[in-house]
Amino acid sequence: MKITQLMLYGRSTFLALLSLLALPALFCVNASAQTLQFEYDLKITADPAKRAAYLKQSGEAPSPYEQVLSLVKGSMSVATVVDKVDLRKDQYHINSTGTLGTVLSTVLADQKLLRDSVGAITKEGFVSNTYQEKRGNTELLIAKVEKSALNFYKVSSRTPPVGSTPFTGRLYDMLTVGYQFIGRDLPGKSITLPVTDGRSLKTYTLIRGEPWEFPFDGGKVKAIRYYKTTSKDDPATFEVWFSEKEHIPLRSVIGLNAQYGATIQIDLKKIPKM
């Protein structure tokens, strides 16, 4: 499944960080219609020195927001992500809102990351038909499967697409990227998946790593680590721990390159009753 590309270094930069994780809302597939809600805590560990070195080398000028956040040391909880999952027989609708904490909300004028995904519930997981994303004050982005193509729109799908790529098969997006393991066995080997972020279509490979007794909610939960491959064109690291019992992501971590000098981590606050 693809894991595509943050408010950390500008108005849209941090919101991009939120979407870069793109972890799924957690749910239990049920034949009857129901709506479930799940909440995550998002933290950032910033390295201002690394970012400053990159800016100096590239000649870019720091934004006012970088000057504020350069005062942050270590790890900081910066946002809450709430996912609402509506299940209706063989279809799903996921709505997600990322809300900044008090400090950044004030600095960045209470901007939010809004995402929405609609598609089918299949034996392969949640397969996306339409994905939408809006980062703060930026334009609404839409990715939609139409005939044998994935079309990309801005603001409205009633306007001509701004881009298109041939596509057939199963599509995943920034909200459904982790759903494929719910109700199915965790893969014993690597798995390759196509994912869209509303801008493009990329292919990512998740490799099964080591098991771990994961500290969670005052106790320990058995989990399996999966991580994606990196390349020159995509140097960002990504890893996720899926609970061995429910196959839901307990924690995910992305390490960004020197351009951003930051690591983002998202943690499930509570395991829902499955």
Automatic annotation (TrEMBL):
Assigned keywords, A-Z: Signal
Cleavable signal peptide: 1-33
InterPro entries: DUF3108 (IPR021457)
Any Pfam family the entry gives: DUF3108
Name the record gives this protein: DUF3108 domain-containing protein
